[in-house]
Design brief:
The complex is a heterodimer of chains A (122) and B (159). With 122 residues, chain A is of the alpha+beta class. Chain A contains 3 helices and 5 strands; from the N terminus they run αβββββαα. Chain A has one domain. With 159 residues, chain B is mainly alpha-helical. Chain B has a domain of 102 residues: Four Helix Bundle (Hemerythrin (Met), subunit A), CATH 1.20.120. Chain B contains 5 helices and no strands. In chain B, helix 3 packs antiparallel against helix 4. The longest helix of chain B has 62 residues. Classes of the chains: A alpha+beta (122), B mainly alpha (159). At the A-B interface, helix 1 and helix 2 of A face helix 2 and helix 5 of B.
């Protein structure tokens, strides 16, 4: 199996587990180790434990320099395998399923489902 | 009857010329028809590629929208049967539009996806979670393919 294909399948599996509520994620504030000066901005880091490993998922903005003076913000999503000491072992390659994974994690963590149930039940 | 038998059997040189001109005229007509057909096919191709290039960003956005919506609905699968079915129907309509604009080489994955959306929505009851997930994955791959195609077009405008 190709490495790229394995990554894709792994992220898809995490999405599946999250959507079915089998993988629990927690939201935490931005971790200092991610921030590199003022070039990277992270809002919330989502953390989940899976098979004695820690998964970290977060959206970040980074400065993309056009030349020596001009720059603009770009956004990306990172999914990492790390340990309790926040040491990143490995980062999953870019994958468009990560966007859906982040949305699914937000949906579960923020409790959108319960909120909608309560609101519509009133 | 007598007069007919006396008609000269050997054609005159002028008749030879007439025959050749007639043959040349016929050949030219056939060649003209072939050229017209080739021009028609080429124009159709240019029209399709122009239309495709113009519509590609919009179609990519729509496919991404379907992918994202189906993913969101998978989080509340049990309560979203009707919404999922509606989304798959909408996705099917956009895929049909996309298939008409794509060339034969790239239409394969759209055809497969169309088959999946058709199977998921036919028959009584709502589609199973596995079928919806399969459609989601195929949409991810199609989006990837369209993105690559879009990059290729930038380098080969005639494609």
């Amino acid at each position: 199996m190709r490495e790229e294909n394995r990554d894709f399948k792994a992220v898809t599996r995490l999405l599946e587990l999250t959507q079915e509520g089998l993988l629990k994620w927690e939201s935490r504030g931005p971790c200092d180790d991610i921030l590199e000066g003022r070039d990277i901005v992270v809002d919330i880091v989502y953390v989940a434990a899976k098979d004695k490993r820690l998964l970290r998922l977060y959206q970040f903005r980074y400065k993309s320099w056009l030349d020596d003076v001009n720059w603009h913000w770009e956004e990306d999503i990172a999914l990492e395998l790390s340990d309790e000491k926040r040491v990143t072992w490995w980062r999953f390659p870019e994958n468009r399923v990560l966007q859906d994974l982040l949305e699914a994690v937000k949906f579960r963590t923020v409790g959108v489902d319960q909120f909608l149930d309560e609101l519509l039940g009133q | 009857m007598q007069l007919f038998l006396e008609f000269p059997r050997e054609p005159k040189p002028m008749n030879h010329l007439n025959d050749w001109l007639s043959i040349a005229g016929n050949v030219s007509s056939i060649l003209g028809l072939l050229v017209t057909l080739v021009v028609f096919v080429k124009l159709r191709h240019i029209h399709r590629s122009f239309l495709f290039q113009a519509r590609l960003p919009d179609l990519r956005k729509k496919i991404a929208g379907h992918r994202s919506t189906i993913s969101r609905l998978l989080s509340t699968f049990a309560d979203s049967a009707h919404e999922i079915e509606t989304e798959i129907h909408r996705c099917h309509a956009n895929l049909q539009s996309l298939r008409r604009k794509l060339g034969r080489v790239h239409a394969g994955s759209v055809r497969n996806l169309l088959k999946q959306t058709r199977e998921a929505t036919k028959g009584p009851g709502s589609p199973s979670r596995d079928k919806v997930r399969q459609i989601y994955l195929s949409l991810v791959l199609l989006e990837e393919e369209l993105e690559n195609l879009s990059r290729d077009i930038k380098w080969r405008p005639g494609e």
